[in-house]
Amino acid sequence: MFLPKQFHFLFIFFFLVLNLFAQDKEKAMPFKKIIIAIEQQHHVSFNYTEDLIAGLQLNHPKKSLSLDQKLSYLAQKTNLSFENIGNQFINIYKKEHETRIICGYVFSGNDKKPIENANISLSTKIQVTTDSKGYFEFKKENAGLLFISHVGFTPKKIITGNSKPENCLQILLEPEITQLEEIKANAVLASGISKNTDGSFEIKPKKFGILPGLIEPDALQTMQQIPGVNSLDESVSSINVRGGTHDQNLFLWNGIRMFQTGHFFGLISVFNPNLAHTISIYKNGSSAFYGESVSSVVAISSTPETMEKNSFSAGINMINADVYAKYNLSKKSYIEISARKSITDFAETPTYKEYFDKIFQNTTITDFSQNQNIDYQSDKKFGFYDATLKYAQKIGAKDQLILDLITIKDNLEVFQSATVYNINRSENNILRQQNYGGNLSWKRNWNNFNTTKINIYNSSYKLLGNQKTTNENQTVIQENTVTNNGINLENNHIITSQFSVSDGYQFNEIGITNLEQVTNPDFYRRVKDVLRTHALILEAKYNDTLSGIYFKTGTRINYIEKFKKYIVEPRIQLGYSISKSLNAELLGELKSQNSQQIIDLQKDYFGIEKRRWIVSNNTTVPIQKSKQLSLNLFYKKGDWLVDVENFYKKVNGITTSSQGFQNQLEFVRTTGNYEIWGSEMLLQKKMNHFLTWLSYTYNHNNYHFSDYQYPSFPNNFQLMHTVSWAGIYEKNNFKIALGTKWSSGRPKTSPDLSQIDLSDPVLVYNKPNNTNLHIFSQVNLSSTYKWETAGGIQYKLGVSILNILNRKNEISEYYRISSLTNSIEEVETFALQRTPNVSFRISL
User: Residue 23 has what pLDDT?
Assistant: First the structure.
């Protein structure tokens, strides 16, 4: 249907009238609406008084104009002038008063944040205070002396004349240094290790000094020097923090959860020691932004706080070689790479041989040779590598993108053969462990008070064991895979210079698959479980250095989709400076964990890496929950430092299969809890170039399994007494450290010989963990020397010796029935014997 031509004319006329009417309306737009629209489009803030713009109306400038063009347009159409401060704040003045204004901004010299309520005095009668943006102004015809002051900052005097609006003063106040801030030591245990206000320990590998037995800043080896942190079998894959198992610790690398932490099946860390910029370790009182952990948190960040210059380094020791490089692509972007690989393909050093003997003792690999003593042959190949990549790009003045990638792999191949009674027997064993991860991070500084950070991450882990027996024509395959991905959103809001608030949301999905496949006879089992968790986080922090009060509290609310279950986890950190030298600290937290490692059989994966990851089913495998409270006194005066911490911790929902039992509980499946309380003490003294410290840890740690015939008994990971000492000397480029570690033996279960028939033995045990192993004692030494050429090339040589006295330390003991002698056999596992290591590094 077509309209008559007159309707076409009327339609066009009506459109034009509406358009003209709209333009007339736009011309009459209040000035305040115009500047509000400009604030929203260009993310700026105007400063003005209401009487300055009252009744003022004009046409809105075009949206396509730049900010400066709009300000120029407004200045032409009005009797106002506009001062643009860093494309963030815009001050509005009357043009006739431009030469009579004294104005300025007051910022903190420490973090460049605005200082609110600073006092500005020009005379006894002319006084003003700054607003929330740090801005002040007043009228003055003559030059004068400004006096600027604020509690907690050093006062400043400035001679000023009359200011034009475009020349507002930029004033920096430096924080007032008081002795209260000196309580936190910059060197705890060694240079490069410090203790923060929130109770966490911080390690800066690039500033790391030296510790006994260490010539490189290995993160997981270093943290074992902290009181309350141990590894009962010397492995970084079995770190116990206040009685917790290794899987109860949360290990993060640039926001990526790591399910594999050790190379060489736990003897060295998978984290390249020449890469990390900051390592934060929380034994208690961790932030509400950390979940999926009922014990400690170890957060590793390789992102520097400031842009660093190009660098390159390469090194080698008696286990591996590595390279590191950082290159600035522009003033706003850089790329950083690192790679490390074992040298076992080329040489079997004394260090490698000691490591190999330590790892494979009492496993199926060595059981094969021990049971056969005729024409035994073995061919083994072992290697590992890790590599990382970081790309960082700043976008404009407010945005930054960071991409982090990591890959880790360990591979073992062992071929064994023997001839017994003219029968050939051989086995081909493959054990592979690998972890991949990636994280994409976007951070935006909306203004000086608000920032947002979003992380998208993925972590994939795989453990594969493949055993082929030729004479039985049998293949056994075991596989454990983990896929973990999610997204984190975090917002930070600075309310005042002392008070800030953070909020966020986290989504996490974890899927775990366990596969077992056997041929001859045929057997196949594959189980996959997936859990999705949502978390809301709210956290507030108050830090007043003048009164010596630090208070941080937060809450994490988890929702588990599969179980339709909510879990609330409050956290608290409270610090108070009692005096200039003494600080008290109270830490508390409730946490939960949905995944854990268990052992089905001790000989799974050849008995080497026998733990496999599983997720909770909320019944036979409960969600683990922990509660912890600690009170700390920290004293520092002069060169003396004393740190005493008393704590209580309880973890519910543990399973017997997660605790590594090798007694009557090995095949019992039940749930319970462990409860631990104790004290950790550190005494440290610095004398010129010499630093010495002594630490002592006491803990009382018991299991509680209500459905078992013995409802309470000592924890497998209890070390009731631990003492460590170190003496460190550092002068110029030479460093040497000597130290010792002594601990009471871990619990073990002895057989009840009164109830065993030795002619046809069947193992009968006493009460679980009724006795202890022998005392563990070890003396370690390390030394480094660094020198530099005229061309700026730096060289570093390091030497270390573990267990100098070559003491034979027993780290585990269990019993079994020998198939060869039909008798009870005591199986002992020992720590490293005397183990030397040498490293050499070159840096450009």
Answer: 43
- Find residue 301's DSSP bridge partners: 278
Measured distance CA(763)–CA(243) in Å, rounded? 28
What sign results for the dihedral spanned by CA atoms 8, 10, 11, 15?
Answer: positive
Tens-digit pLDDT profile for residues 243-271: 999 999 999 999 999 999 999 888 899 99
User: pLDDT tens digits for 60-92?
Assistant: 888 888 888 888 888 888 888 888 877 888 888
Q: How far apart are CA 159 and CA 145, in angstroms?
A: 5
Please provide residue 19's backbone torsions phi and psi, each rounded to the nearest 5 degrees. -65, -45
Bridge pairing between strands 333-342 and 824-830: unpaired
* Sequence-ordered list of residues with C-beta below 8 angstroms from that of 234, at least 6 positions apart, any chain: 267, 358, 811, 831, 832
Question: How far from each other are the two terminal CA atoms of the chain, in whole angstroms?
Answer: 82
**CA separation for the pair 459, 252 (Å, rounded):** 10
Classify each residue of 84-97 as buried b or exposed e, where b means 16 or more C-beta atoms within 10 Å of its C-beta. Answer: ebeeebbbbbeeee
Tell me the one-letter amino acid at 649.
K
Characterize 645-657 residue by residue with b for buried, 16 or more Cβ atoms within 10 angstroms of its Cβ, and e for exposed: bebbbbbbbbbbb
Q: How confident is the model at residue 186 (pLDDT cuts 50, 70, 90)?
A: low
What 3-state class would DSSP assign to 759?
A: coil
Helix (H, G, I), strand (E, B), or coil: what is residue 436?
strand
Which of 591, 599, 669 lies closest to 623, judged by CA? Answer: 591
Cα–Cα distance measured from residue 680 to residue 717, given in angstroms and rounded to the nearest whole number: 16
- Return d(Cα 651, Cα 674) in angstroms, integer: 6
Residue in this structure with the two tokens 């290697």, named with its chain if needed: 383
Nearest to 484 by CA among 532, 415, 419, 425: 532
What are the CA-CA distances from residue 171 to residues 68, 102, 538, 546, 685 (Å)? 24, 13, 34, 21, 41
Amino acid found at 78: T
Structure tokens at 182: 């000196």
CA atoms within 13 A on the CB side of 829: 21
Tell me the C-alpha distance between 636 and 182, whole Å: 8
The tokens describing 820, both together, are 């060869």
Cβ density class 146-159: b for 16+ within 10 Å, e for less: bebebebbeebeee
Ordered alpha helix ranges (H), 164-231: 219-222
CB neighbourhood size of 713 (10 A) = 18
